[in-house]
Each structure stands twice: as structure tokens, then as C-alpha cells.
Amino acid sequence: MSRETTGQASWADRAWTVVLERTAQTAAEVGPRFPLFADPETGTWKTTSRGSWTGGFWAGLLWLRALASGAPEDRAAAAACTRRLAHWIDQDTATRGLILWYGTALAAGPGGDSLAAGLREAAARSCLAAYDPEQELVPWGAAFGGPRMLARVDAVPGLVPLLAGLGTEGERAAYGHLTRHLTLSHTECPPRPAWQSGPDDGWTPCAEPAPGWSRTTPWLLLGLADGLHCLADGLNSRAAGALWEAADRLTAPGLAPATAPPLAPPAPLVPPAQEDQPSGPLDTSAAAIESVALLKLAALARATDRGDQADRLTTRARQILHRLCTRHLSARGALTDGCYDAARALAPRHELIWGDFFLAMGLALLTGRLEPFTT
Question: What global pTM score does this model have?
Fold first, then answer.
């Protein structure tokens, strides 16, 4: 992807600069701990020692900074953070995709870290061992408590490319995992984020996260984009077509059709944290995730002669990023108005570390600083 040279790129370049400055400030504040969310007024971070499910995004953000600066001290900081993710390799959680894909993939670039490849492969093999061929997924797991045999949409991104890197067996598991979640999501509108395995191969809807959760569709789209890319060589035309149909269905609310006016208002650029609570908190992190997924899908669409679709996907991604950077990005480079957990009123209008990561990644993709499938 080439660098944009139009006037609109100036806002993206300015935002990129302040986001990386904020990353440096965060690194100085948290030290060897992992940031989770920051107070929107003070900017002070709530941190954790092991990173929880968000640790990979902090490592990924540090790698973005290191790849941008080329500074040895930035590479060292990113590599040290990646090493601290090793604890998660054998933990029983499908969020190992979020942790150990996003925490290692950028480390494979120039000036990266060779240990990251070993961590990623070890995590992939651990996840493949957890794959349930009867249920066709890697279960949500018990590491964070609650039922183990869940299908949750935040188990899709990261885990699909992680598994697919293990050859034929891994690709089969990645495809099964992705399509299981897509099939379940298609049974309700809006798609339900979580399901529990029941008797006779049935699935029972879970009450939490509730339908209409802001990150449901963005997580699915991100997993879809990575699946279409990393599984492309093994997909027949029917399977690839089905994945594109799923992508079309999930992106339809946000995209203006090529012809004729839309029949319904488009999806908001920044969604409410809960769809049925439009006056409640927003979730800028969901919007940032969507922008990255759309730019990845646009690259794939362009490569498969879907030019009009690629243009529409890119346009919406650019609109999302512009909205985030002009209305929700603070002067210190913090993406505010993210919602960690609306149901529990936990960090409802805060800076979220994964929001910062996906905003930075979206800006890097839009401006050509990063290729779509580097991570």
C-alpha cells in the first residue's frame, strides 16, 4: 500500500505522531506492567502484572513504535514485553489468539525479535491441542472462570491466523473455528456474541455479552479478513464464496450500496457500547477494530477484482479513522470514549489499550506505513 498524498492524509499523519508519543508516555508510566485502561481526565493507567487478555495489544503497540522509530531501545522494550507473554502459552483460554498473535506478529518484521516466532509457534500448537473437532472450535476455556465450552466472538481474531500457521491440520482447525462462530452469529440479528455448547450438538445463547455488544461484528470481521487471507490457498471457490458472503452480510449496515439510496441509516461510525442503549457510552475501540478489519478486507477485495467493494470498504474505514482522530483523540494522543464493560460500568468512557493499538494500526494501514497482513 502506497503512502497517501492527498490533503486528508495530514490529519492521519498528525494522529500517528501523537499516538506514538502517547505510547512512549505509557511505557514510561507502566514499566514492566501491562496497561489496561486509563482515566480520561488524568491519563493514569490501570495496570496488571500479566497482561490479562489485552497484553498482546500492548506488545503490538510497542512493536509498532519500534518499527516506526528503528531505535534499538524501542526494539528492546518491545522484545522484553513480548517475552512477558510466555506465561499465556499453556493457559486454557481462546484469547491466546489475541494475546500471542497480536503480541508476536509484528516482531517478525525488520529489526524484530526471533524469540517471538518460537512463542507464536508454541502458542499455536497449544491451541491446536485444545481444538475440539466435534464442536469445531477451540473452546473459550476456563482461565477466566465460568463455563469452558463457550463460543465467543473475541475468540476468533488472532486465533485464526495463529492456527493456520501450522500447516494442513492447523488450517483445518482455523477454518472450523472461524465457520463455527460465523454460523452461530448468523442465527440472530444482531449477532449474539456468546453461545454455550449444549446436548445433542446444540448451542444455547448466553446472556453476556448481550446481543448488540459493540465489538461483536468488528471481532468477526477481523477474523474473517485474516481467514480469507491465511486460508486462501486451501479454500475451494464455494468455501471462499461463503466467507465473502459472510463479510458482505456483516459489513452491509455500514456501507452505502453501489447504486440506489440506502434503505436504512448506515451504522454509526462510532457505535454505542450496547446497541439498544444509544444514549449510553460509546465504544471507540470497536470502531478502531472495524477500521482495521475493513482495510484488510479492502486489500483482499482489490486483489480479487472486487474494486467497487474495495473502494467502499476503504471509504468507510477512512471515515471511521477521521472521526476517531478529530473527535475522540486527546491532545496527548489518547483514544478516549472506549468502553471496557458497559454492563458493569467498568471504564465506560476511558482510553483502552486495544483501542490505542487498533487506532495506531488503522492509521499505519491507511497511510501505507504497514502492509495489511503484516499482522
Answer: 0.94
